User: What shape does this take?
Amino acid sequence: MYLATGIVSRIFGEVVVTSVLLDTPLEVIIITMFALAFILTLHDLDVVARINELLLPLVLLPVLFIALASFQKAEWNNLLPLFRATGPSLLKGAYEAVYSFSGYEIMLIFFAYAHENKSKVKAGFYGIAITLVVYTLIVVAGIVVFGYEELQRVAWPTLELVKTTQVPGLILERLESAFLAVWVTAVFTTVANAYYAFIYGLRQLFNRGMGFQRILSAVMFIPLYFIALWPQNIVELFRISSYLGVYSLILNLGIPILYLTMLFIRDLGRKQKERNADG
Assistant: This one.
């Protein structure tokens, strides 16, 4: 989560300085995002939950609108042929896309402090399902508008997709400006939640209070800043994000499997002791 926070901030900065704020230094964009995340770490978990609850519709609804509105210029033949991809090509595509689906482990950390009821499990599935639907809509929209060959040459496909989308009635002539506002909100929730989960995990590990969390948050931003500036160019940035995605997938699947294995072994040992006690 810590490394992912820096990489996401760098990706956000690259989008902003190449599309809107052309004369603004990349470092200023990254530091601004870190400052917003730091302000969030000064508060407890209930504040984080309220902020996420408030920002969810502000991110979800505009993204759904943009994805659906972009189908106005859709060429559905670009989706053909279906189901013709080979196994290696599917694995390669999954390797490149796995980073976009990482971060769900944050939900597991925050769920430890949610009320114990059936709706908590449903909320987790709903959150993953919403992400899956939104990503699928954006990918399909990009393919049907640009075609897969042209899509491979675009650095920021979603931003280019927004530029080609027209709002009925010409209410917004430059939709990308409104999209970037949504993009800022989405990146803030990603960076702030990931960094908060990391800092809060360290706080629980050392069994300390809110003062420790605030001091640690300020200190840990220093190496995070250099991590965000570590990639020398966009190509290296994308390569590192792919590595982080695979690492995150292995870690997030490996730890639960390890825990389940330990629980299974413990239950077997407990049952064996009960049998020996019964004679």
Q: What stands out?
A: Residues 234-278 form the longest helix (45 residues). Residues 2-278 form one domain. The mean pLDDT is 79.
